[in-house]
Design brief:
Layout lengths: L2 H14 L2 H4 L5 E7 L6 H20 L8 E7 L4 H15 L3 E3 L4 H13 L7 E2 L17 E2 L5 H14 L5 E6 L2 H16 L7 E4 L8 H9 L4 E5 L2 H13 L5 E4 L5 H15 L8 E4 L10 H13 L7 H20 L4 H7 L27 E6 L2 E4 L2
Parallel strand pairs: 1-2, 1-3, 3-4, 4-5, 6-7, 6-8, 8-9, 9-10
Antiparallel strand pairs: 10-11, 11-12
Helix pairs in contact: 3-11, 3-12, 4-5, 6-7, 8-9, 9-10, 12-13
Length: about 400
């Protein structure tokens, strides 16, 4: 037998014995801590599904420079301390090289000091589902890279619309943590530019998800003609129900991080139960384009891959945003060819990346924010529609 024939036989035997797995490259481990069992579990699952759809797709094509991308997922229940514990486990036990897709300002700001303490490992936190201003400023910004527009930009858009509608007595219902306080401050500053101030306010603890009649009464009795709502989708939906049940005509608004589709689903259930209309005219902002009929390449790709990998899952703006974030992550990894210092060097540039949106993405300095897209929408006939 010739040498070449012998080699072919040996190679085939090695392949049958697991040669490919024996010499497979280590995966790129990405740690993702999010709420899968707590007050925002519905939103957390949306975010996980969107990212997973794209990661499954890229892995089916061989991964990134021959390496599979592995999402290492842990539940934090929207608890900052649990998010920190998860992050320590990611770094020390799971040996992840990237943190990704964390939910909320409170969890993100809790984790940043850990990244500072492990600065020599060059681990970034990419694309958290948070518009918090604090993670777009020093001292947090060197470790965090954002995809989405900020809460400030979303609230500026809402205030501009409300004042155009002659709504000037603007109240706020908010979750009493870093997430809610960031929005409260953004609203205060936006109103100040209009010569206005916050008309009234009601806050709730993130663990209190049972009754919001007291909060609704505070806003209703203040005669507010508009109210910005910041919290979990469930809390916001129940607050809207209580406020509308009192007969309030105030315009209700929310930002994207609340979870617009989940809120609407709750409101539809309320309407089915007692026949009242709770949703008509509710305003909201989104930081990604509409996906169902959009001609953008990334929207078409999202619809195809969601149908392939999650055919029974209802699509949403939240899962679409997470899909975009996962695609952006893979694009950056393909550019850097490696994690650690190479990825950090790639992140520090202002190079544009075309991932199929209307314009390329690049990280604006000093905020490390790639997109400023904000779209205003409203609920009409039980559907979210672009505000004309």
């Amino acid at each position: 037998m010739s040498i070449s024939s012998t080699f072919k036989v040996c190679f085939c035997m090695l392949a049958l014995c697991g040669y490919n797995s024996l010499f497979a490259l280590d995966p790129i481990k990405v740690g993702m801590s999010l709420d899968l069992e707590g007050p925002s579990k519905a939103l957390g699952k949306e975010l996980l599904v969107g990212s997973t759809a794209y990661i499954k797709h890229i892995n089916s094509k061989g991964g990134v420079y021959g390496r599979q991308v592995q999402l290492v997922v842990k539940n934090d229940g929207s608890e900052p301390n649990q998010a920190l514990k998860n992050s320590i486990h990611f770094i020390e036990k799971d040996q992840v090289s990237i943190l990704y897709g964390y939910m909320g300002a409170a969890t993100v700001t809790k984790v940043i000091p850990l990244l500072k303490a492990n600065e020599s490992k060059h681990i970034p936190l990419l694309f958290p589902y948070s518009g918090s201003q604090s993670i777009r400023e020093f001292p947090y910004v060197p470790f965090v890279y954002n995809y989405r527009a900020s809460t400030k930009e979303e609230i500026n858009t809402i205030v501009a619309r409300l004042t155009t509608l002659k709504r000037k007595k603007i109240a706020i219902f908010f979750q009493s943590d870093a997430y809610g306080r960031n929005a409260w401050d953004a609203l205060r500053k936006a109103l100040k530019k209009q010569g206005l101030s916050i008309h009234s306010e009601a806050s709730y603890n993130s663990h209190d998800q049972d009754s919001f009649s007291e909060h609704a009464n505070i806003i209703y009795n203040s005669n507010a003609d508009a109210v910005l709502t910041i919290g979990s989708a469930k809390a916001v939906a129940y607050f809207i129900k209580e406020l509308k049940a009192l007969g309030s005509k105030a315009t209700v608004a929310m930002i994207s991080s609340v979870g617009s589709n989940i809120v609407l689903d709750h409101l539809k259930q309320f309407e089915f139960s007692d026949g009242r209309n709770y949703s008509e005219g509710v305003l909201g902002t989104e930081v990604v384009p509409e996906y169902a009929t959009n001609a953008l390449f990334v929207a078409k790709q999202y619809n195809i891959l969601m149908k392939r990998y999650f055919p029974d899952h209802k699509k949403s703006r939240a899962s679409f945003e997470s899909f975009i974030s996962a695609k952006f992550l893979v694009t950056l990894l393909n550019q850097s060819k490696k994690e650690g210092p190479a990825l950090m060097a790639t992140l520090s540039t202002d190079q544009p990346y075309d991932i199929g949106l209307s314009q390329p993405l690049s990280f604006a300095k000093p905020s490390n924010q790639a997109s400023t897209f904000v779209q205003l929408q409203h609920i009409h006939k039980n559907k979210w529609r672009a505000y004309q």
